[in-house]
Design goal:
Strand content: 5-15%
Order of helices and strands: HHHHEHEHEHEHEEEHHEEHEEEH
Oligomer: single chain
Distance between the termini: 20 Å
Largest sheet: 7 strands, mixed
Structural class: alpha/beta
CATH topology of the largest domain: Aspartate Aminotransferase, domain 2
CATH class of the largest domain: Alpha Beta
Amino acid sequence: MNNLQYNFLKQEGFDKQVIDLAQSAEEQIKRVIDDILSLREYNQYKVIRALQNNGLSDTHFAGTTGYGYGDRGREILDLVFAEIFKAEDALVRHNIVSGTHALSLCLFGILRPGDELLSATGKPYDTLEEVIGIRGDNRGALKDFGITYRQADLTNDGEVCFENIKNNIKENTKMVLIQKSRGYDFRSSLRVEDIEKIIEYVKGIRSDIVVLVDNCYGEFVEEKEPIEAGADLVAGSLIKNPGGGIAPTGGYVAGKEKYVEQVAIRLTSPGLGKEVGATLGINRLLFQGLFMAPHVVAESLKGAVFCAAVMQNLGIDISPSPFSKRGDIIQAIKFNDKNKLISFCQGIQKGSPVDAHVVPEPWSMPGYESPVIMAAGGFVQGASIELSADAPVRPPYIAYMQGGLVYESVKLGVLSALQNMINKHLLIL
């Protein structure tokens, strides 16, 4: 940190101890940052080459209306995603409204009455619980359609338990779900090499089981994607990693052609599948967001590593550590205190580029079991590739910080969060 940066932060009201913490953390993580930049370069080349190989032209940015027949931009976008993810096919649409929606399309597109879904990574993310039917009134859930569910609980250390997976695979197990990200759990995210071991184990028991990977928060964090580890399908959101902070909405599914077609049929209807869907002029934003994605994901990772180093130096429990290999962009911070959790999230909001003046409070968000506090001062509503921090307000009061279009945004957000906690006498340096 040079004098110009130091003086700016000082003038903005940050305590000297907070600035010194930041400087110390940045010195500690230089090697990790170099590794992130190397990864960024590789993934950036991969995206550029896919755009070139599929002949992307500005004519593909034109939108269609009505049925959207013959939308060449839509078709090229699918091809580009398929190449990047090493998949046979892909479905990329602005009217897939979230990662949960993309995963729901996969579940309802593939599973039939009498089939069973097995989660290999314990309890799935909160918003999938009502999709499956393990929470809520089951209106339209898998359970409503006679599709059963099991889960292979993780070990006490938060690791995948292969014995539990084996014991829960039955004759009617049709699909195994693997969640790459930590979700709202204080466990390590999975890396592609971990996913490959799970898939090899599952396929060794029953080769006909369809493996679906929830790839949210995990795209471009590593050199490989889960399809390369043997996954049959992956799904995610465009307002997370692969949208690069530019895509205003959307989601994707990629994988084996026959399964992607079944998902497309669920999104539209039998007989139509991928052949319809007006793009309404949104193609350029989806292409440009994808182009920017490796760079933006790297900025997010740099910010997460910085946050981890600062919090670790304060003696706060974190996951992962600054020097751990990462499988997603999420940094978990365990506060063990409700007020500290809320103050941290409110401080992140103070460092955001949009709505910095707003004070977030816990509320009952649709799809979540507990009240959730969410700091999300972004240009796209709810875009967690932009700087955000959210948490279910329940013990042990863990904040999940992710995103950041630029590293400086994350750094400012983390420092604002610390200063907010100090000002409220919740943190003493």
